[in-house]
Design brief:
By secondary structure, the protein is α/β, with parallel strands linked by helices. The chain has helices at about 15-20, 55-65, 85-90, 100-115, 120-125, 155-165, 190-195, 215-220, 240-250, 280-285, 300-320; strands at about 1-5, 25-30, 45-50, 70-75, 90-95, 145-150, 170-175, 185, 200, 225-230, 250-255, 290.
Amino acid sequence: MKLICFGVRKVERAYFEKLNKFGYDLTLVEELLNDSNIEMIKGHEAVMLRANCPANRVNLEKMKSYGVKYLLTRTVGYNHIDLEAAYEMGFKMARVPRYSPNAIAELAVTFAMNLVRKGAYMVDRTRNKNFVVDEYMFSPEIRNLTVGVIGTGKIGYTSAKLFKGLGAKVIAYDLYPSEQAKEFVEYVTLEELNKQADVITLHCPYCKGENDKMINDNFISNLKDGAIIINTARGELQDVDAIIRGIENGKIGGFGTDVFSNEKEFFFKDMTGKEIDKTVEKLISLYPRALVTPHIGSYTDEALTNMIEISYENLDEFLRTGDCANKL
């Protein structure tokens, strides 16, 4: 079985090769799928994508003409695949329903600790040989704060557990409260969470038409003054313009995000000296009150292992049974 995998970073190659227990004939491509490299798919029966690899109708038609039968994505989300077109063309598709929740949860805690303790700000000053301690560096201890977790699935649960371990009071909101999470959180309404939390971390799924831009002007107006917001979930959950206003007027004390709704335009690319979305550029300029990472929440050894193993198993299940538990 010839399998081509796109978006395989140099550090990931060894994992793809080591975990290939099924003996697939691998082609590993560092670049994301694009109009220039799609010709590389010729001669392969299976394709593995990652986020921001555009499996649109045009690309799917090309894959079909090349003889591709199996389309895998090593991600939980699949909005980079035109499912309607893919179903029409008869592709067998599968995703990774879950991977290490610690990877995302640890990034959320990293954002929180940096924003609470002003870590990025202090390191940046000392990098420039400025060792003066100023008022901005003064901070509370996380154990004296209330952390609000929106969404208590596996990742939200793990985040709550980590914050609780640091001594914080943890409250949570979820349409479907988890009995397991109650060990670490007190469930409240979204309005109560909004008003009580010093730190809010998003771990809920994006549901189109239901929670688009939930972090908006109205949400922000009801925050505690100086609250910190963290989004390691989906870019569609945040109204970046509203967040910029909140930071500028002091309602938001700090904001950390690993995601944007239009991130495929610039993430995973070197945009040094080039123009990007003006709103995103404005947010980045608010550093150190705004911290941005390039969708690297899952960029850990454990999460990568999970994504590759499950993707390989998905393909094997298709080949053995014609079906897959993780099919799209």
